[in-house]
Design goal:
The chain has helices spanning 62-133, 147-155, 176-190, 193-205, 211-225, 229-249, 264-276, 278-301, 357-368, 505-526, 538-553, 559-580, 595-609, 622-626, 628-647, 653-666, 673-686, 688-696, 699-703, 706-711; strands at residues 5-9, 12-13, 15-19, 24-27, 42-47, 50-56, 169-172, 330-335, 347-352, 383-388, 394-397, 406-407, 411-413, 427-432, 438-439, 451-452, 480-482, 727-730. It is of the alpha+beta class. The chain has a five-stranded mixed beta sheet with strand order 9-8-14-10-11, covered by helices on one side. A four-stranded antiparallel beta sheet has the order 2-1-5-6, with no helix packed on it. The chain has a three-stranded mixed beta sheet with strand order 12-13-17, with no helix packed on it. Helix 7 (264-276) crosses helix 12 (559-580). The termini are far apart. One of its GO terms (biological process) is regulation of cell migration. Keywords: Membrane, Transmembrane, Transmembrane helix.
Amino acid sequence: MERDIKITVGGVDCQLTALARKVLTCKPPTEKPPLEGGLQPEVVVKIGNISFTAGQLSYDSPSLTSSVVMVILGCVAAMLICLICLAIMRKTNSHQRQMKYLKTQMDTIEMKVATECKEAFAELQTSLNQYTADLPLGTPIVPFLEYKDYCARVLFPNNPHNHPVLRDLEVDSQKAGAIEAGLREFHKLLMNKTFFLTMVRTMESNKYFLGKDRVYVGSLVMVVLQEKMGYCTEMLKQLLRELIDRTVEKKFQPKILFRRSESVAERMLAAWFTFLMHDYLRNFAGKRLYDLYWGIKQQMEKGPQDALTLEARYSLSEEKLLRATFEYKELTIFIAADSMTYTQPDMPVRVLDCDTITQVKEKCLDAKYRTVPYSDRPNANDLDLEWRTGINGRMVLQDIDTTSRVEPGGWKRLNTLAHYNVPNNAVLMLVATQSSLYNLSLLSERSEKSTLSLKNSPTLSRPWVGTNSSSNSKDAEGQKLFHLVKPTEHGPSENQEKMVTEIYLTRLLMMKGTLQKFINDLLESIFSTASRSAPLPAAIKYMFDFMDEQALEHGITDAEVVHAWKSNALPLRFWVNLIKNPHFVFDIQKPTKVEGCLSVVAQTLMDACSTQDHQLTKDSPSSKLLFAKDMYQYRDWVDSYYSDIARLPSISDQDMAALLNEESRVHRGQFHVFSALNELYKYLDQYKDPIMDALEHNEHAQASRLPGRLQANKTVAEMKPITGDLTANISKIK
């Protein structure tokens, strides 16, 4: 029983709290009972009359234990705090040292880039000044194309040299009279407003009238109407009104209007500016565009450029940046005169030892024929490069020959000057391919001494005829070709490691800094309303006022919409096209090698015309980051340009008509209108039935008897241009 059990601790009762078969639990006194000698109290258990001692209960001093624990914890905490403070201070100092180091490095890189930019620009400017100063008196500095060639390249970029509108129409002599009469009647029909508008509307309403057809028809129409620019402008404005009406009615995005040639009117507008901006190009802005092209080309040629991938050490385009490490040397070679008498001094040319033979030939041609338009120069593929080493010693250098180095994996490297061990100050000569001789003994110890004619030369087959090919080029034996770097998908070249782009981004900065003035000069000339050398073309003011009027008519109050129309119509459709394709304006080689840089400049112009403020991050395209600081200034130029034009006095229809008539008079006869009519009639014949139906349901067409006139024009459909002997030329519309 619980009442029979008693527990004491040092004579003091211990309250029983739990009772089990083998266990007793009690609550001892909270304080140690007083005992003599400081002994620990004994625990005595009494059950009835039985008493026994369970042992001693030890009491520790609570105050002493707490003090010790607090002291220990305090010491530990203090030590931790000290360690944390030391770590923070050390990390802070390390971070500050690192930031200071990085800032120093950035300042050093920035100063280095700035210095390189200044030196490179000064060298470019000096070279340009020397180039112009050494030209013979009266030689044009800029190789502008003639008006006809310029227009043909813009209007028909896929066939600018042999398009039918550039030559007389050849037809069967027996049908020449009927065909000429039919085309003259077709021309008269096009001069009728009702017929012209009905024809264009009907064609565009057909779902099978594709975008390329709209572009081509728009170009042909402008060629036909080029000698009637007043009538052409009237028809263009009417088609633009209808295009704007459709855009507003169908609630399309009005800002994208004129951005793409999705209608005949949009193509006609681009061609209209092409015709009327020609004088402004020749007298003012064209020189700035050529300076930019020339500067890019010269700067890129100072460093290596892969002849196949077109990646270059110096570039504005990250995609066309050469990301490989290798050594190269700059050489000065001398091009011997054509005459065997050597009375003319040799011409020095700066090249690189890593240049392919074709690259060297092109640089030599640029130096030798710098005053000659590209179309009048010899082609590099029609010439051989001979290395002269003495009175009779000579060797033909080729991109590919029997000495070409073949690497594991079937890769063959294009030959370079370094491959032939051509030294500095070497004398070379450009000779016609069929007359070249070379001495195989000059290939060091690779062959015995013997002089062979070209017919016995291993280069006779000429499997390689240039280096402007794709990265997947192969030679006649099926071996894969490469120049500086192999295509990325096949891995890096031997001893050449493809590095991350960021390491080489300073080259983009250097290239941009070098060309900054050329880019600024071009954009200033594009967005200039007042110039001493060339006033603002009247066509720009006239068309921009027309767009403002259309916006008011349709209740468009958003200024960004009209801003977008003007930007799409002129800078984006006209200037961007010429920046990307300077060979449309100048008699130069197609700018394949520099197209990456030109695309970056064109994109910068497009960004300057945009009203969208894009937030740039570290992941933004490098082309946008390069010009991020300049973009605010460029956009101010664009805004000022549009506002200044709006404040200029309006051009009356009478004054504009006089200007347009003068334009037609000056450039009359540039194109073969009969040939253009012949091309255009093919589309008329294709859509003849719906056009006839539309004319029959049009009161004005009925009043002018247009359906009958079109029906009587069937003779043209039977014409068959031929190339036989019995031909007749149909040349001019009188």
